[in-house]
Queue: 2 jobs
Job 1
Amino acid sequence: MAVAIELLIDTGRRPSEILNLPWDCLGHDHDDNYVLVYDDLKNNRPGRRLPITETTAELISAQQHATRERFPDSNPTELVLLPASDQNGRRAMARHQIGRTHRDWLELLPTPIRRSDGSSYDLTTITPYSYRHTYAQRHADAGVALDVLAELMGHELLSSTKAYYQVGEKRRRAAVDRLANHRFDRYGNHIWRDAQALLDDEHARHALGQVSVPYGTCREPSNVQAGGGACPFRFRCVGCDHFHTDPSHLPEVKAYLHDLLRDRERVLAATDLENWSKTEALPSEEEIRRVKDLVHRVEEHLEQLTPAEQADIATAISAVRRTRQVTGLGMPSINRQPDLGKPLERP
């Protein structure tokens, strides 16, 4: 029975589809990755193939072995993966059996299941079918494309799948809310600003599909209009009042500091550059100092939080980063001039 519940959690299939799995339900795709072969009974689509992890495949393989040992005299092609307690292994266990066992299992849990706000979850609302919803929500939160998730779920209407993305948007907004009071300016000073204004700004940025600058957010009008890829100041963010950041950008800030230090050593070691070229190519010592100070101040701020606050911020950072597009640093693009020595070609 535990195998049935694990398969419900791992695959997101309907309880009837799991209970009626044939013994030989484990297959491979063209790349030799594991798939679950099952029948979509609700929509009358037999032989559906669902990509599964190696861990899930091992679970199925172990159950195949256990079923074969229980019914060694039965033809494997006639067995079901999760047979009832009969003599031939051809009849699947009843749905009410898994429902009853599932309720008993929930009642034996040592601690209550809690929501993100700390309130206890009503265990009577958790049924074997609930895991289909959690499967879909996990994939939506991970950024799986709408059409791909619809295919995984077997939805014929995209509207059935879109509901899970609406929940994800609410979670992203809640994550931005938690980060609202942990923002820093270019000097690494902690910014206290209107949280609701920040939320509206970040929410609009997600809705419009805009991207942030490499390690924070930029409010410079022309750069915002270009989606973060056309800074008129050559991405000197730590020297610009339009720049703000928060702990969710810390990995990018650290990576940029590493790049600055690496580039400095590379330029200083170069022997084929004239002095003026080295001067132009060297990263600014002031910029390096500013970035180091910014990293230090953000990390120091996080260390001063309580363990509960740190865990809350970590959850928020994870939610925000899953949906973020990061723009690589670079010079503003310049349109190439046509070669006037060659005739222009017609498009």
Job 2
Amino acid sequence: MAPFLDIHVPPEILQHIVRHLDPISLIALSQTSRVWRAFINPIHHDYAQRLLALELLPEHGIVPRFDERSQKLTPSWGSSEWESNKYACCGCMKLRTHMMFDNHAILRRLFRKPPPGSVEASNATTTDWEPLELSARWRHIQDRAAQAKEELEKCRVRVADWPREYAMLNPVPHPFARVPQYHDDINHEIEAHLVGTSRHKRRCVECQRRRGNWSRPNSHPGSKEAPAAKSRQLKFPSMWERHFPGLVERLPPESVPRIWRALRESTDGIQLSLYVLCCPSCDTWQEHSAFREWSLYQFGFGSPKRPKDPLLCNRCHLAAHQDPDLLAQELTMGALEMFRDDRDDTLHQLKFGWPLIHRDFNDSGNPNPPLAKFKAVGAEILSGLRWTSSTKQDIIIEDSDLPDLGRRFQRYREFIDHEVDSETRWRVLQSWFKLWFEDYDLYEKRYHWLNKQIAWLESDVKIVLNYVLKRDPYRI
């Protein structure tokens, strides 16, 4: 008989009760007293099970769904649900923010959080604790792992044999016919049996670094002193919002013009991958913007570029040099360069449509201009504009010219909306020019807004430094 809870309960009954606990309750019970700890005697496997069960609780984030066929993640990376999402690392035995894991550790089939109803999610509801000696219990754990591996292999074979089975059941007239994707029942079978079965092997970026996974040359996109890991891909309206999030208050969504430049996947932002680097001085992982290497890991040819040592985060740079003015100057110069580039892009968008308006009214280089019979209106709108060359491919404007340019555009808009027929209007408003026509006022407002932000940053060199030290926006 064993004295627990001031009553005498046979050990067999207690063992039966404990075997029906979930992994979280098992460890919680073992930590209530020395007697319970000696009775349960938890091992590393039990703590790992508890950690993997904790990551599935709602307070530690969502269970995202990843469609392997369409490569679609629900919810998407930029949604607010990901802010509190945590994952278990069975190396350091901690629940860490998702930013401490690379994409493979989160999206690979065997490492993903298992959805409700799957085999792995069901296993997380009941512990596999047994009242055995450590060696005997470890053998049982290994036996169960071997059986689970056999079941997983059967499921993999089932998935691999699907095209052959489909071909046998649905013969095709020629050997090059396309085999369709998995049926939904096959996809559900994958989800139910395979997702999350190797979560105990998931490691955060810090554990990978300590294990020496990145000791080989070119094994990661960082440097020898500052290892780096590729992280989430997010959409940013501009580069300064990517490197200085929250520095200025954004324009309301209805005041943001669409982006129509080439090589853009969408009209509302740029897809950029985040990278996290480990500072060699403070040994903390931070988003790479904290290291003031703005040109690293940008899109384009020859990317990503590798950082050059020594590389220190903002706080370590300040501690090493003891010169706030030096850090403030570097940060302000970087922010101003991005804001000015954004302003130049907006100015380019403002100027984009005027050569096209000239082309539509005149027959130079255009054999059949749609607005040729309205040359008088064209002269009213275009006369007095300064062009960069005789070919009239671009106009010259200054800030003082914007009010006059706005009046010219309003006259052109009235003309297109009320003085031409629908077919001519359709011929004129095509492709990017249509976006320019619809969002011209927004481009002008954004240009003036960016001028104000640049003047604000130029007024005090320590604005960005105070923002970085107060908000600490890069620490993960």
